[in-house]
């Protein structure tokens, strides 16, 4: 049975779906001034963008019943929009393609759809249009199988240090109830990093997706010349499990090796279970832990080490 939180999430997504389908006219019996229903339009789109697909391929791509696909293709054939020929590699399969009339129908539908979506966007002022497009990209990414696709790492830009301090403070406050003492700690770490930055032995990486910062990690000098420190690793909640943290940690380790460090260390707290799993999988070993009171809570601090 859905929990109370599940019910809230379900209601939120359904509310979005009602607004979106109404705004785009997806409830109309015909889509965008065309003779096609929504499902027919999607099948037409796949036919226009695939080379000689079979009915089975269309059914798998769209998650539609084979019988529904067959009925739609039969209607398309009766209207002269699609033609089929035997697959020379498999006599039981029919290779499908749009006729000239089918391509003309798709072109008209595509133009009307672009016009409809363009009008929807044009009705939004710039301050609302930008977050709508960002949200659309996020939704698409979250429902795709490979949510880490397209993530890239870059160096620091003006504003990144402040952003990392802000996001980590906000996330730790939301997830663990930590107070502003953490913000002060992160600010001191990054202030020292900036003021004494040594490009030969230190580095910083910002993970970015669709021009959005989704994580970061820093390599800083340790207490001796042979020891480096991994600091301030974080990944945005909606990107966890997508491999972003793994890439950030691996990049920091490789840079530490290039810098000539013999060992890479980090300090964390036992409650940060996701980060600890990342460190363990990367080969770090727990070498020390001790209780402490920080950030408004009783915590267990841990030191992890990796021999390079």
Indicate the topology.
Elements: H1 4-23, H2 38-49, H3 55-62, H4 66-78, E1 82-87, E2 90-98, H5 100-122, H6 126-143, E3 152-154, H7 160-176, H8 180-195, E4 203-209, E5 212-221, E6 227-235, H9 244-258, E7 263-269, H10 273-281, E8 285-294, E9 297-307
Parallel strand pairs: 6-7
Antiparallel strand pairs: 1-2, 3-4, 4-5, 5-6, 7-9, 8-9
Helix pairs in contact: 2-5, 3-4, 7-8
Reading the helices and strands in chain order gives: HHHHEEHHEHHEEEHEHEE
| Major sheet size, sense and barrel closure | 7 strands, mixed
**Helix/strand/pairing class, anyone?**
alpha+beta
Query: Which blocks of ≥5 consecutive residues have pLDDT under 50?
Result: none
Strand count = 9
Give the neighbour order of strands across the main sheet: 3-4-5-6-7-9-8
Number of domains: 2
Q: What count of helical segments does DSSP give? A: 10
Q: Do you know the CATH topology of the largest domain?
A: Arc Repressor Mutant, subunit A
User: Which percent bin holds the helix content?
Assistant: 40-55%
Distance from N terminus to C terminus (CA atoms, Å) equals 49 Å
CATH-defined superfamily of the largest domain:
Winged helix-like DNA-binding domain superfamily/Winged helix DNA-binding domain
CATH class term of the largest domain: Mainly Alpha
So what's the overall shape? elongated
CATH architecture of the largest domain: Orthogonal Bundle
Mean pLDDT: 88
Tell me what portion of residues adopts beta-strand conformation. 15-25%
Using only C-alpha atoms, the radius of gyration works out to: 27 Å
């Amino acid at each position: 049975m859905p929990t109370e939180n599940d019910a809230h999430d379900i209601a939120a997504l359904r509310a979005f779906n009602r607004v979106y389908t109404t705004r785009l006219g997806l409830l109309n019996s015909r889509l965008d001034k065309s003779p096609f229903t929504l499902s027919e339009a999607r099948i037409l789109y796949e036919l226009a963008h695939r080379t000689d697909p079979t009915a089975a391929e269309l059914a798998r791509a769209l998650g539609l019943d084979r019988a529904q696909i067959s009925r739609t293709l039969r209607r398309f054939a009766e209207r002269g929009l699609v033609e089929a020929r035997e697959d020379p590699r498999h006599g039981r399969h029919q290779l499908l393609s749009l006729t000239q009339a089918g391509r003309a129908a798709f072109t008209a539908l595509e133009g009307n759809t672009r016009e409809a979506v363009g009008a929807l966007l044009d009705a939004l002022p710039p301050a609302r249009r930008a977050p709508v497009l960002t949200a659309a990209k996020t939704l698409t990414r979250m429902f795709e199988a490979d949510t880490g696709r397209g993530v890239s790492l870059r160096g620091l830009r003006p504003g990144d240090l402040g952003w990392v301090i802000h996001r980590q403070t906000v996330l730790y406050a939301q997830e663990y109830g930590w107070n502003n003492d953490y913000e002060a700690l992160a600010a001191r770490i990054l202030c020292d990093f900036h003021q004494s930055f040594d490009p030969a032995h230190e580095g910083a990486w910002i993970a970015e997706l669709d021009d959005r910062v989704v994580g970061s990690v820093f390599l800083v000098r340790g207490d001796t010349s042979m020891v480096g420190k991994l600091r301030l690793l974080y990944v945005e909640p909606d990107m966890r499990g997508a491999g972003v943290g793994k890439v950030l940690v691996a990049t920091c380790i490789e840079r530490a090796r290039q810098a000539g460090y013999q060992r890479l260390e980090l300090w964390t707290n036992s409650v940060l279970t996701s980060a600890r799993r990342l460190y363990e999988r990367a080969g770090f070993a727990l070498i020390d832990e001790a209780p402490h009171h920080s950030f408004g809570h009783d915590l267990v601090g841990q030191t992890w080490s990796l021999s390079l």
